[in-house]
Amino acid sequence: MSHRILLLGAPGAGKGTQSAKLAEEYGIDHVTTGDALRANKDMETEYGTPRSFMEAGELVPDPVVNEIVKAALADAEGFVLDGYPRNLDQAEYLSEITDLDAVVLLDVDDEVLVDRLTGRRVCEGCGANYHVDFQPPEEAGVCDECGGELIQREDDTEETARERLEVFAENTEPVIDHFREEGVLEEVDGEAPPDEVFDRIRDVVEE
């Protein structure tokens, strides 16, 4: 049986981790907006191609993103959608083009999210990812893979993390409300250990 799953949650809630596990568990596609845009940069829409906006450093407009996501979902036997919809217009469009089997919100307190986002460290040499609490290197500040220096990216500072959470709340809370009003939203405690979170999502999907 193919599943059509939507995962919602703030930056740092664990959507990417859980989406990858769901895709593997059920043999379905992990569809993210970024991947879908990169894979279809030259797809013609009445508003132009995604490439024309990306190369100009501009946000790809909703109608173009909608067309790309629609194409990605049409090609999938089943899917877990991560990072879309980002606003109410996209949510309403999604409800028009597909019937979702499960809509799951990963609920995580803002302070926990800030800790998760600001704890990430990246190797300057090979790009390997670590986290000071959840996935620390064997030696502090040094990459296990290549011995390179671990740095904090500019977009992982506390100020940037809080800005990202504000933007999420402003744009995506209406999306959450939309699915809650449709009676399809299920909330899962995203602060539990990842395996527990996965088990709870799987229970929702298989209900």
Automatic annotation (TrEMBL):
Subunit organization: Monomer.
Family: Belongs to the adenylate kinase family.
Gene Ontology biological-process annotations: AMP salvage
Short name of one Pfam family: ADK_lid
UniProt enzyme class: transferase
Reactions that this protein is recorded to catalyse: AMP + ATP = 2 ADP
Transferase is among the record's keywords: yes
Name of the featured protein: Adenylate kinase
UniProt KW keywords: ATP-binding, Cytoplasm, Kinase, Metal-binding, Nucleotide biosynthesis, Nucleotide-binding, Transferase, Zinc
Pathway: Purine metabolism; AMP biosynthesis via salvage pathway; AMP from ADP: step 1/1
GO cellular component: cytoplasm
Positions of AMP binding: T33, R38, E58, L59, V60, G83, Y84, P85, R86, Q90, R153, R164
HAMAP family cross-referenced by the UniProt entry: Adenylate_kinase_Adk
Residues binding Zn(2+): C123, C126, C143, C146
Domain notes: Consists of three domains, a large central CORE domain and two small peripheral domains, NMPbind and LID, which undergo movements during catalysis. The LID domain closes over the site of phosphoryl transfer upon ATP binding. Assembling and dissambling the active center during each catalytic cycle provides an effective means to prevent ATP hydrolysis. Some bacteria have evolved a zinc-coordinating structure that stabilizes the LID domain.
UniProt EC number: 2.7.4.3
Main function: Catalyzes the reversible transfer of the terminal phosphate group between ATP and AMP. Plays an important role in cellular energy homeostasis and in adenine nucleotide metabolism.
Subcellular location: Cytoplasm
Source taxon at top rank: Archaea
Location of the Adenylate kinase active site lid domain: 120-155
